Amino acid sequence: MGRRTPIAALAMTPLNGLTLLVVDDDPDTVAVLAEYLESAGARVIGVSSAKAALDVTRTVHVDAVLIELHMPAEGGRWFLRQFRTPAEYGSPSVPVFAMTWERHDRPGPESGFVGSFVKPVDVDMVIAIIAALPRAVR
Fold it and tell me: Which residues, listed in sequence order, are joined to residue 46 by a DSSP beta bridge?
């Protein structure tokens, strides 16, 4: 019989086994999010542009994406339109979350984003929301 992970350890690492893509032109935002998400058990890939994020999705399966809406050149909305083209990039079932500095700028349910976070992001909330996603979506 193989070793089992203790339940207490699972509670400490609710994102264990997930690969998350964090996209923001601010390297400090990427670094802070990566540190917290990794401490919750996730593998984090951080990039600084929407185009770089699409390149990642060509070769790596990601379980969720957190992306800044407004970046130089292409932003989160552009990424989402491209990413939802299954023949070329990702999967329509991979959840994509928007990040923005402005509460009034949060995309609505019709936008295609699963949810959004206002910066500075409450990392505990991000962890709880991603951990609560149905396994089929992950």
Answer: 22
Residue 100 lies in a domain: yes
Write phi, then psi, for 97 (nearest 5 degrees): -110, 135
Of 83 and 7, the one with more pLDDT:
83
- At residue 87, the pLDDT reads 67
CA atoms within 13 A on the CB side of 94: 25
Would you place residue 3 in the very low, low, confident or very high pLDDT band (cuts 50, 70, 90)? Answer: low
CATH at residue 122 = 3.40.50.2300
Structural domain includes residue 49: yes
Other CB atoms within 10 Å distance of the CB of residue 61? 9
Kindly state whether residue 40 falls inside one of the protein's structural domains.
yes
Q: What is the pLDDT of residues 12-46, one digit of tens each?
A: 799 999 999 999 999 999 999 999 999 999 999 99
- Evaluate whether residue 96 is within a structural domain: yes
Contact 79, 57 (CB under 8 A): no
Q: What is the pTM of this model?
A: 0.87
Question: How many distinct structural domains can be found in the chain?
Answer: 1
Q: Find out whether 13 and 41 touch, Cβ atoms under 8 Å.
A: yes
Q: From CA 100, how far away is CA 119, in angstroms rounded?
A: 6
Residue type, 122: D
